[in-house]
């Protein structure tokens, strides 16, 4: 089963339906048995062969999306280098102030301690926000370290396999949030999940194995604007579940640097 | 104590400089990047070098600088300060050394007492880890604890968590309201369960116990 990047209800009107050209790395056509769903936006799949005119529109939108990721990364750096550093410096100044307050002023000492604790709480909230904009560890160290850090706070068992190589801020950002979206909904009794990151030519491939494939949309939402695609392969459904798909593998492919 | 300092944020650098001086330490060098600090310390002796992780040379100049300093001055203590407490960096720091080394959040060394306590422990050879990070690593929300760590009792896990914070036996005893002798017994059990042999120095076994735990968690089983 294949989810194509162009299937997005509610998009601004376009002059031509978007579709990957045959032979492009993320082309739906390169995969056999792609069903004609989802029904909400069946038109693009039925459009005729793409013409050259469609190329600039698709490329422009992907470029815009890449720029959005760069902007998010800049915002995170701005938080770190600006507000966060100022607040940390303020904590030091308060410490210096406390040192100068005579020891016979226990109330003042306690007040300054309280202010420092409060500033620590402010910084923790800033860290939380920064992590949702663009995780600093993803920026500095890449997908492997950033995803492993996430596995420390999720409730179920997750194994991350990722190379040290880098794929560019946009593809890494989309891949990171695509995986985190999946991991965040895992419950404590969920079976172990294996996440594998690798390069496949000009694409970053992220495979999440052991995941209920009905959650594929969570990954698709993150990768489609970059021209990424999502594929699912479910294990045969046990009859007890009424034939619904169960655990399987969700694979996202994202054009990368 | 003689302290050297490298941090690219001017406001924080100046603040830390003043706090160090207020605490009575001699600041032998204060630079905006790692390369300058390495150069400065070729002629100036220091007991502890304080390094920002995220500074020039980019992206994580603090780590590169620390490797060079540890090679050139094995006796010099290293204190990493960062805006983030991440296990990824803790592992990299512990690869640089497991003695006289520390990793703390920038806003958590904001008092003369804490700063001096941190520096003194590092100078005396201890490993100091930001308590919130140590706590997070040992108390994961994961339901099933697999591998060797699963064989530890709840109380032994408590002891291991406090070891991860770099506390002494007496410190652990105080925290858990038990005798230091009881703590020694727990630690001996932890070492035995983790397969750490008695021919290794006590201090190293403590670090290895914590590392074994961290690795077992990071490997996902």
Automatic annotation (TrEMBL), chain A:
<keyword id="KW-0902">Two-component regulatory system</keyword>
<dbReference type="GO" id="GO:0046983">
    <property type="term" value="F:protein dimerization activity"/>
</dbReference>
<protein>
    <recommendedName>
        <fullName>Signal transduction histidine kinase subgroup 3 dimerisation and phosphoacceptor domain-containing protein</fullName>
    </recommendedName>
</protein>
<feature type="compositionally biased region" description="Basic and acidic residues">
    <location>
        <begin position="1"/>
        <end position="11"/>
    </location>
</feature>
<dbReference type="GO" id="GO:0016020">
    <property type="term" value="C:membrane"/>
</dbReference>
<feature type="domain" description="Signal transduction histidine kinase subgroup 3 dimerisation and phosphoacceptor">
    <location>
        <begin position="72"/>
        <end position="136"/>
    </location>
</feature>
<keyword id="KW-0808">Transferase</keyword>
<dbReference type="InterPro" id="IPR050482">
    <property type="entry name" value="Sensor_HK_TwoCompSys"/>
</dbReference>
<dbReference type="GO" id="GO:0000155">
    <property type="term" value="F:phosphorelay sensor kinase activity"/>
</dbReference>
<dbReference type="InterPro" id="IPR011712">
    <property type="entry name" value="Sig_transdc_His_kin_sub3_dim/P"/>
</dbReference>
<feature type="region of interest" description="Disordered">
    <location>
        <begin position="236"/>
        <end position="257"/>
    </location>
</feature>
<feature type="region of interest" description="Disordered">
    <location>
        <begin position="1"/>
        <end position="65"/>
    </location>
</feature>
<keyword id="KW-0418">Kinase</keyword>
<feature type="compositionally biased region" description="Low complexity">
    <location>
        <begin position="22"/>
        <end position="50"/>
    </location>
</feature>
<dbReference type="Pfam" id="PF07730">
    <property type="entry name" value="HisKA_3"/>
</dbReference>
Automatic annotation (TrEMBL), chain B:
<dbReference type="InterPro" id="IPR001789">
    <property type="entry name" value="Sig_transdc_resp-reg_receiver"/>
</dbReference>
<dbReference type="Pfam" id="PF00072">
    <property type="entry name" value="Response_reg"/>
</dbReference>
<dbReference type="Pfam" id="PF00196">
    <property type="entry name" value="GerE"/>
</dbReference>
<dbReference type="InterPro" id="IPR058245">
    <property type="entry name" value="NreC/VraR/RcsB-like_REC"/>
</dbReference>
<dbReference type="InterPro" id="IPR000792">
    <property type="entry name" value="Tscrpt_reg_LuxR_C"/>
</dbReference>
<dbReference type="GO" id="GO:0000160">
    <property type="term" value="P:phosphorelay signal transduction system"/>
</dbReference>
<dbReference type="InterPro" id="IPR016032">
    <property type="entry name" value="Sig_transdc_resp-reg_C-effctor"/>
</dbReference>
<keyword id="KW-0597">Phosphoprotein</keyword>
<dbReference type="InterPro" id="IPR039420">
    <property type="entry name" value="WalR-like"/>
</dbReference>
<feature type="domain" description="Response regulatory">
    <location>
        <begin position="2"/>
        <end position="132"/>
    </location>
</feature>
<dbReference type="GO" id="GO:0003677">
    <property type="term" value="F:DNA binding"/>
</dbReference>
<keyword id="KW-0238">DNA-binding</keyword>
<feature type="modified residue" description="4-aspartylphosphate">
    <location>
        <position position="52"/>
    </location>
</feature>
<feature type="domain" description="HTH luxR-type">
    <location>
        <begin position="145"/>
        <end position="208"/>
    </location>
</feature>
<keyword id="KW-0805">Transcription regulation</keyword>
<dbReference type="InterPro" id="IPR011006">
    <property type="entry name" value="CheY-like_superfamily"/>
</dbReference>
<protein>
    <submittedName>
        <fullName>Response regulator transcription factor</fullName>
    </submittedName>
</protein>
<keyword id="KW-0804">Transcription</keyword>
<dbReference type="GO" id="GO:0006355">
    <property type="term" value="P:regulation of DNA-templated transcription"/>
</dbReference>
């Amino acid at each position: 089963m294949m989810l194509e990047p162009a299937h997005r209800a509610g998009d601004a009107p376009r002059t031509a339906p978007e579709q990957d050209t045959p032979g492009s790395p993320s082309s739906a056509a390169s995969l056999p048995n792609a069903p004609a769903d989802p029904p909400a936006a069946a038109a693009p799949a039925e459009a005729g062969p793409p013409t050259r005119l469609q190329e600039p529109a698709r490329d422009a939108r992907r470029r815009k999306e890449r720029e959005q990721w760069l902007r998010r990364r800049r915002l995170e750096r701005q938080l770190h280098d600006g507000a966060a550093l100022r607040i940390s410096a303020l904590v030091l100044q308060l410490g210096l102030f406390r040192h100068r307050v005579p020891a016979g002023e226990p109330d003042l000492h306690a007040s300054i301690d309280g202010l420092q604790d409060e500033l620590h709480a402010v910084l923790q909230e800033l860290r939380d926000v920064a992590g949702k904009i663009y995780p600093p560890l993803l920026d500095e160290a890449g997908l492997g370290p950033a995803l492993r850090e996430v596995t420390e706070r999720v409730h179920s068992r997750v194994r991350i396999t990722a190379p040290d190589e880098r794929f560019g801020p946009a593809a890494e950002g989309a891949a990171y949030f695509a995986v985190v979206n999946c991991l965040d909904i895992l419950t404590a009794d969920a079976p172990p999940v294996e996440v594998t990151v690798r390069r496949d030519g000009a694409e970053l491939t992220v495979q999440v194995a052991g995941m209920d494939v009905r959650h594929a949309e969570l990954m698709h939402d993150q990768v489609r604007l970059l021209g990424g695609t999502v594929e699912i392969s479910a294990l045969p459904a046990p009859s007890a579940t009424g034939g619904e798909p169960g655990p399987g593998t969700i694979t996202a492919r994202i054009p990368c640097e | 104590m003689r302290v050297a300092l490298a941090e690219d944020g001017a406001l924080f650098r100046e603040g830390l400089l003043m706090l160090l001086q207020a605490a009575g330490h001699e600041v032998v060098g204060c630079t905006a990047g790692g390369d300058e600090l390495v150069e400065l310390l070729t002629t100036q002796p220091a007991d502890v070098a304080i390094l920002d992780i995220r500074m020039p040379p980019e992206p994580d100049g603090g780590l590169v600088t620390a490797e060079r300093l540890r090679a050139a001055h094995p006796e010099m203590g290293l204190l990493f300060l960062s805006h983030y407490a991440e296990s990824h960096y803790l592992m990299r720091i512990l690869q640089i050394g497991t003695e006289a080394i520390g990793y703390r959040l920038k806003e958590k060394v904001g008092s003369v007492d804490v700063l001096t306590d941190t520096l003194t422990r590092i100078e005396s050879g201890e490993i100091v880890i930001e308590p919130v990070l140590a706590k997070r690593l040992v108390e994961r929300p994961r339901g099933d604890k697999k591998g060797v760590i699963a064989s530890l009792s709840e109380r032994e896990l408590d002891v291991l968590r406090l070891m991860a914070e770099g506390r002494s036996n007496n410190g652990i005893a105080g925290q858990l309201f038990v005798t230091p002798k009881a703590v020694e017994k727990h630690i001996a059990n932890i070492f035995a369960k983790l397969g750490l042999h008695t021919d290794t120095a006590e201090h190293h076994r403590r670090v290895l116990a914590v590392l074994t735990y961290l690795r077992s968690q990071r490997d996902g089983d």
